[in-house]
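Supplementary Note 2. Why include the ligand at all?

Several targets in our set were suspected to adopt different conformations when bound, so apo predictions alone were not considered sufficient. For every target with a known small-molecule partner we therefore ran a joint prediction. The input for 4'-deoxy-4'-aminopyridoxal-5'-phosphate is given below.
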Amino acid sequence: MAEQRAGRVVSRRSERIQDAVPFRMMFGFRMHSGYAERRLEPGVLDLTFGDPHEMQMPEYVEALRSAAVPEDELWFAYKQSERPAQDAAAASLERVVRLGWTGDDLRMTTGGFGAITVAMKVLADPGDEVVYTLPPWFLYEPLALEAGLAPVKVRAAEPSFDLDLGGIASALTPRTRIVVVNSPNNPTGRIYPPELLLGLAGLLAEASARFGHRIWIVSDEPYNRIVFFGNEFHSPAEFYPHTLVCYSYGKTLLAPGQRLGYIAVPPGLEGRDEVLEAVDMMQIAAGWLFPNAVMQHATPALEKLTLDVAALEAKRDRLVGAMREIGYEVAVPDGTFYLWPRSPLPDDEAFVADLSRRGVFVMPGALFETPGWFRICLTATAETIEAAIPHLRDAFEAARKLRHGGVVEADSGQIP
Ligand code: PMP
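The joint prediction is reproduced in token form.
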């Protein structure tokens, strides 16, 4: 029937999702950069995705191994949110965001993806708007489209990449239901300061009153434990109770293929039970978005583990130092495992293509709808990062020559 209607096989919704900016860009990136074929070649330096580059911690493997041994006949039965997992997760969330969380406030999900998708579907109806900041985690758009929501994008204030409260205020309409906040931020590494979150809370409280319905924050905080020395993380939930916290263990444990996360509803929030009940049903209806039984049995043991943040910080310092010495403009990230330097060519895709010809893969800012910048992922080994530095130097010099040769259009002044 669909074919007869418009000459296509798949639904309009599928087409809209396939057409989302990040999917188009990601497809282009994988196709044209040679990334798909070359990423595993010897000598290729892969600084793209937040994947592990070293063998997993033995304690992690042991936690899964023992969780896979059944203790009763229901060990592998259908699992929604398992109480020991919820309790362990709540105790550790309480160490990061002190709001008196208990296991009752949390529902276990298939990572951050599951948490965000459930939050969007529970809080907003098709046709409603969801506001988020550019550069974003690039999959907000497809998740929003799948939920039938209209993405409304507000550019962050450059070069701090803080939330632009004025921009957010003017993006709010009577159809706005959700503002997504991602701190520590992927890709910029920025942790939003408390004053900014307080400002956002005031703005949303005022707009909610004006529109006669609540605008919620979906706080996407999978990096809330990857915070570098001297920085402090604050969740929007501390300032604005109508916040759903979405967490993933994929970052702290550097095991994103093992799907585990949660959605948390602040204790004491009016209407909390209603939201939690809706979350429970939505997790089922959206396709059983609960982590599998083994991951939930393992959660209390996994909660004791974390990646080596000090080692990550050492890689950050080495690379930021080296890149600044070369001449790159790059901020020191407050948290996460990303660097977000300015591209020495205004055309970040051309610059990233040049780096890839030199055997170094990074992500163009265009993928994050923010041309002129690029993302480097620090989950690569220290050796890989060290080996990438001479290529980053050569690519920078080549960009400088290209620009001075007048081949590239005048820039925004980033090249000395
Ligand atoms: N939010 C952000 C900001 C992310 O960076 C990611 C993963 N890259 C996710 C959510 C999803 O995390 P997961 O794959 O662990 O569900």
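The first helix runs from residue 2 to 6. Confidence is low (pLDDT under 50) at residues 408-416. Comparable summaries for the other entries are listed in the accompanying table.
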